[in-house]
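**Backbone description:**
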Amino acid sequence: MKKSRTAIILAVCMGATLFAGCGSEKQKIYEQAGKDLEQGSYEYALQGYEASVQNEVKLPHSYRGAGIANLRLGNYEAAAECFTNALNSDNMGKALRKDVLSYRATAYFKAGAYEDAMADCQTLSEDGSLDADGYYLTGKVALEMDSYEEASSNFEQAYVEDSTYDMAIRIYQAYIEKGMEADGTRYLEAALKTEPKDAQDYCDRGRVYYYMEDYDNAQKELIEAANQESSEAVLLLGMVYLAQNDVSNARVMYQEYVSKEGASAKGYNGLALCDIEEGNYSNALTNISNGLPSATTEEMQSLLFNEIVVYEKMLDFPTAQQKAREYLEMFPEDEAAAKELAFLKTRITDSGAAGETGTQQEGDGGEGGAEEGGSTQDGVGA
């Protein structure tokens, strides 16, 4: 399929020089790349945008599109190069320049080029172009550079610009990644001071309590949201019940979510987590398989990671290692998976491997590693 799509693009590109309709054909390639990008078909999108660059169709936008596709594929240095090419193109409006600079800062951040990322953030700041997401990104970059006061200042401004539950959780998670829970918790506490107005507010409050591990209050908020027909709250209730080791009620919630939403990757992932908790690994693999056809890239990542964990718990370490290698080809930036692969290598070489499995925990992926083995991913995130 991939080869077929590539051949079509190349054929159109070659034919465009021979036929009078080449302009419209080139435009079709560009438009299809945009559709592929929107649908999460990043490899096809990248092919289309690279062809559009060759065809010189809307160059700054084509470079931008190629950069975003590379970013989603984990090709961070290539993404930064595409964004640089976009910035060096003619006809860069102010809004597009801001957008591309923000994306390039993100690419530099993902690539670990923190000084370059900070330089772009500072350029945006000097232009007066920083919005809530920009302040948040600057805060994350500053954290990685151990500039804690600068990080705090930017996170505070991000929350001023966007005083939502979602922003509070994002800042909390940024601090958690650096082992600074207390600094992040105050944002969760601030968010909870807001009075809930609708089902989404109750749902968000439940999520905040979940991250604070206050499961009783999480249940109260989420049940209220679920009573107001929030499907998201039903899914989150499954997470809360699992965190309390109440697998039976968790399964009921996930089944209800699948019933409401149809073929839902998140719902099937939740059911797989229940199966893993109960040691029913065959059913877990079935639910993972059922979730994959409808999964977004992020949902697929959680499902495939949990598939690795299932094979590990089945003591099928060779298959688990193979799955981990395939996973890392798709998601090379996942440090937890890299640690999991390192752990699996020790299980295969260790003569006593058959007596041990990795620990399992509920959370946003956690960290595996050679010490403990894999943790599952709930696939919900912030």
In short: DSSP finds 20 helices and no strands in the chain. The mean pLDDT is 87.
